[in-house]
Specification:
Residues 54-223 form the DUF4126 domain. The protein is mostly helical. It is built from nine helices and no strands. The protein starts with a helix and ends with a helix. Residues 32-45 and 245-254 have low confidence and may be disordered.
Length: 259
């Protein structure tokens, strides 16, 4: 209330006088703002730099797999007071955000488990997951620390892109098999890994950092291997459809020019 008293005295000094009811109403609003700021300060004080970076990395990386699950679960943790969300993440616990992210999570949960539909869903979501992962990572630090927020956004976007590419490539390879069970297994694994990554980053940030480094290497190796497999499948399909002949003719023409 010290700041509010100073403002009232200043207003009196310039000739503006507030009646008792108005002063009391504005004073209560100022108290609420001060309490909210204090709660935000306490929430940030509960997190050290390593925990904040780990959480930013987890949100970015997991967004490439399950964006709406990450948004909904993180928001619910804040809304139920299980976790004091740092920075700008508190917006995720607003009822509107929880309703929208919950509805999209419901749609994605089933769409991601239908062969063919999951790949189409990934293509559509590829334009959303990477910028959303960057935004979530930046929100960990809020607007008060622009330098760290920018660094977190770059890191979160890169990690989201890595997991998105690995997910899309893996699903495309799995969908070459007609049976749905491998697709269901991969989808359920992604569900658990996404939420588990956030939990691990919150409770054991150092363990998460080591695990993330190992997983990133494995993901890129797997993506490279599966990409070669998919190219071989595409070449085989083209051969079955009779599209290899123009390539052979071009090679023959090149040989004639050589001689």
């Amino acid at each position: 209330m010290d700041i509010w008293n100073t403002i009232v005295i200043w207003l009196h000094g310039i000739g503006l006088h507030l009646d008792k009811d108005t002063a009391q109403t504005v004073g209560q609003a100022a108290d609420q703002v001060g309490q909210a700021a204090g709660q935000m300060g306490q929430a940030m004080a509960q997190w050290d730099w390593g925990q904040l970076m780990a959480l930013a990395a987890a949100l970015g990386w997991a967004s490439g797999f399950r964006l709406y699950a990450v948004v909904f679960v993180t928001g619910m943790l804040g809304a139920t007071d299980v976790l004091h969300l740092p920075g700008g993440l508190s917006v995720l616990q607003q009822p509107v955000i929880l309703f929208i992210s919950g509805a999209l999570l419901f749609v994605e949960f089933f769409a991601d488990k239908i062969p063919g539909v999951d790949s189409a869903w990934d293509v559509v979501q590829s334009v959303v997951r990477v910028p959303a992962g960057a935004a979530l990572a930046a929100s960990v630090f809020g607007t008060d620390n622009a330098t760290m927020a920018t660094a977190a956004a770059l890191m979160g976007g890169t990690l989201a892109l890595s997991s998105q590419v690995a997910k899309t490539t893996t699903r495309a390879a799995i969908n070459t098999s007609p049976e749905p069970f491998s697709n269901w297994g991969a989808s359920l694994l992604e569900d658990g890994v996404s939420i588990g990554a956030v939990w691990l980053a919150i409770n054991h940030p150092l363990v998460f950092a080591i695990a993330l480094a190992v997983v990133l290497v494995l993901m890129w190796v797997m993506t490279w291997v599966l990409w070669k497999f998919l190219r071989a499948v595409v070449r085989r399909i083209r051969r079955w459809l009779g599209h290899e002949e123009p390539v052979a003719l071009a090679a023959t023409g090149a040989d004639h020019q050589r001689y």
